[in-house]
Specification:
Strand content of chain B: 5-15%
CATH class of the largest domain in chain B: Alpha Beta
Shape of chain B: globular
Structural class of chain A: mainly alpha
Number of helices of chain B: 12
Structural class of chain B: alpha/beta
CATH topology of the largest domain in chain A: Fumarate Reductase Iron-sulfur Protein, Chain B, domain 2
Oligomer: heterodimer
CATH architecture of the largest domain in chain A: Orthogonal Bundle
Largest sheet of chain A: none
Distance between the termini of chain A: 38 Å
Number of strands of chain A: 0
Order of helices and strands of chain B: EHEHHEHHEHEHEHHEHHEH
Number of domains of chain B: 2
Number of helices of chain A: 11
Distance between the termini of chain B: 34 Å
Chain lengths: ~190, ~290
């Protein structure tokens, strides 16, 4: 369903467990209450850039068309501004559903492979796990090296300005004992 | 002296340095003490929540547990930190199984969280705890000539709207008016800046932020007040790119609301980190 074109969908494209499993996630409960009014798409400042609007994501999720949804860039373009969620007349937590879709796309390896957004999310995740804090400058450099190393050149002028104004910390900030934090995160994985 | 547990967030030592400086200066001036939460960790922002929800809540809960030991209200100036900490509280309240799992996780590190922490944004504290009358009483240099576009962004007011309307907030408008500024009617005040999308999808980020600045300029604002380090940076650092792409002047000083308030209190621009801003045009004071 890229670029708004419509394709036929068949019974075998449907994963009937998909909507139920999303509804079982925190914030997914009201998925089936959607009346397809489009308030979410109208409110979303990103919808003009999306391959599927938020309304369509909700419709396809409810219909069980998992692949279309998880391969879409839409959940990743969601900037978590919560405008859709606050405006939804059916109290659907659209932003939380977008988060649930992102996590499922990562789990299933179906996220858009050429998008830098999941790359940033993963780099951030690993940096926090290792150090307990994130370093803006290191995160930006790591993202550039993994996606588009040449972009570092384009960023140089802003980088120099930030250094000059004392707004770029080059060191990796960290908590005193990252192992203590790690023990919490490990315990979360076990239970 | 009211003491607060200060959660500065990771941007404090980088992009958000002037926010930290001006917030401390303003609080000190008002007799409010900020004690940093010892050994706080990253809130996880939107990225961590995109990979693991349970662990994102646990990350926030460690900070809440550390704050609870201080028996003080938490101040979180960064919009993302503020939201993540509040969201973790909401989620632990709504989903007992998740709360139980998080408590077990904290237990592995010898920490407990009983749920007795209040997380507040400094804007909320200034308007609802200090109060506008007390703020007005401290103003020695009213912000005459400042036409402020009050920009809230998203994550301070949404989704919970704890202290202001989630779509049409007013607190920053009132605070800036109390500081003597002319507050511009700015309908995009709670529109999103795109957050970290500026780093991943720059084309989209530049366009979103250009629209925010264009509207503020069209309404004759000569400065924009922000509440979040990422909003401040997105709006400030790409004005040259905006001009280049849209063939339109996009110059507008973008400052933290605490910097403007500090100026109204008569504090030194340097103590408020104003020399660190990229755009230092009028009405901001000339920096030596």
């Amino acid at each position: 369903m890229q670029n708004g074109t419509t394709h036929c969908r068949y019974a075998e494209d449907v994963n009937p467990a998909f909507p139920t499993e999303i509804m079982a996630k925190p914030g997914g409960e009201a998925l089936r209450d959607c009346i397809q009014c489009g308030t979410c798409s109208g409110a979303c400042p990103m919808s003009v850039h999306m391959d599927l609007t938020p309304r369509r994501v909700i419709a396809l999720t409810r219909a069980g068309l998992e692949r279309d949804v998880l391969e879409s860039a839409t959940p990743w373009l969601c900037a978590s501004c919560y405008e859709c969620q606050v405006r939804c007349p059916r109290d659907i937590k659209v932003t939380e559903i977008m988060y649930a879709l992102k996590r499922r796309a990562i789990e299933k390896g179906l996220f858009p492979k050429r998008s830098p957004i999941p790359v940033l999310a993963k780099a951030f995740y690993h940096m926090v796990a290792a150090h307990g804090r994130n370093s803006e400058s290191r995160l930006v450099i790591e993202l550039a090296l993994r996606t588009n190393p040449l972009s570092l050149l384009k960023m140089a002028p802003v980088g120099i300005k930030l250094l000059r104004t004392g707004r770029m910390a080059l060191g990796q900030d960290h908590i005193k004992d990252p192992k203590q934090l790690q023990s919490i995160l490990d315990a979360m994985e076990e239970s | 002296m009211t003491a607060y547990a200060y959660y500065p967030g990771c941007s404090r030592s980088g992009l958000g340095k002037p926010y930290d400086e001006s917030l401390r200066a303003v609080f000190r001036h008002l007799g409010l003490a900020l004690e940093e939460i010892p050994d706080w960790n990253c809130c996880g922002a939107t990225s961590y929540m995109s990979i693991s929800e349970d662990k994102a809540v646990a990350l926030a809960a460690r900070n809440l547990a550390l704050a609870e030991q201080m028996k003080a209200e938490v101040v979180a100036p960064c919009a993302a930190c503020y939201l993540v900490l509040t969201k973790a509280q909401h989620m632990m309240g709504e989903y007992p199984a998740l709360a139980e799992k998080v408590r077990k996780g904290l237990g592995a590190a010898g920490l407990t969280y009983e749920g007795h922490v209040t997380v507040r944004h400094p804007l909320d504290i200034l308007v609802n705890h200090v109060g506008l009358d007390a703020v007005r009483a401290k103003v020695t240099r009213p912000l005459a000539g400042y036409r402020v576009a009050p920009y809230y962004g998203c994550q301070v007011v949404r989704p919970y709207g704890a202290f202001d309307d989630p779509l049409r907030p007013q607190t920053l408008d009132r605070l800036m008016a109390a500081a003597g500024a002319e507050v511009v009617d700015y309908p995009l005040k709670a529109h999103c800046c795109g957050g970290s999308l500026m780093g991943t999808m720059e084309d989209i980020g530049v366009r979103m932020n250009f629209l925010l600045i264009k509207e503020a300029r069209a309404r004759h604002a000569n400065v924009m007040a922000t509440l979040c380090p990422l909003c401040q940076y997105n709006l400030e650092a790409y004005q040259g790119k905006m001009r280049h792409r849209f063939h339109e002047d996009a110059t507008l000083p973008i400052v933290y609301f605490t910097q403007l308030l500090g100026l109204a209190f008569g504090l030194e621009p340097k103590a408020l980190g104003l020399q660190r801003n990229f755009v230092t045009a009028e009405p901001l004071p000339a920096m030596a």
